[in-house]
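Example record for the data management plan.
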Amino acid sequence: MQITDKIFALKHNFQIPVAPGKNLDRFVYSYIIIDKKITLIDSGVMGAEKRIYEFIRQSGRSIGDIETLILSHAHPDHIGAAGQIKKDTQCEVVAHELERNFIEDIELQNQQRPVPRFYDLVSEPVDVDITIEDNEMLIIGNDIDLRMVHTPGHSPGLLSILFLGKDILFSGDAIPIPNDIPNYDNYHQLISSIERIKATKEFNTLISSWADPVFGRDEIFKCIQSGTDYLKKNNSSVTKTYNGSGNTSIEYCSTVIEDLKLPAIFVNPLVNKAFLSHLY
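Corresponding structural encoding:
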């Protein structure tokens, strides 16, 4: 999908097993910025480098032109192909310091944030060459400047990216999709990050990891508001439910999922962890 003459989106489909014989269909976008050199935003899951390379070659360029790989955060669907891409291209890997440990030590990530069949999504770690902080700039082309916006909540070091002069904001996984799986580390941080995005006036196109592009301030506002409303609906149910004794945490999680009328396959330890974050 073409966003501008130099910015392109690639959708990578994958599945996560959530119960015997049941898979959760997911997708994630990576972005390719083609200028004098090529910059990637996120790598997709393991094996996604094949589609990325094919697209670059069909554009008349070489994968050796890949100079920078920005990892918005450390989750496996964003870093799955990063190790292979770095080995093939010797590109520099950029991420926030708070994501470095999970990017460079995937065993640690799997222990602390176990996603079903984790190693089907990411097979190897990758070294982070450059850590970048809130409001830092990356100059990646003759007319493309990227300003990093730290938007924690979904993960501690999630980077959104403002394309200065292009009226584009990449929000990563910062803005939830209503009725999608509740997937975040810290509810309160996430609400604050969404409010920061909402207050940013320098974009008219919103691109993200898990939704199609949104064009125009009115549609962007609707998208942000619907994500906020969903989170607050979750919060109302969580604070009502997680307030007594007699049930285990996962049973509380099941009660909330039922109350929200979400699929029962969403009941798992990661969603329970998201709900627990509402309480502190």
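Summary line stored alongside the record: The chain is about 35% helix and 25% strand.
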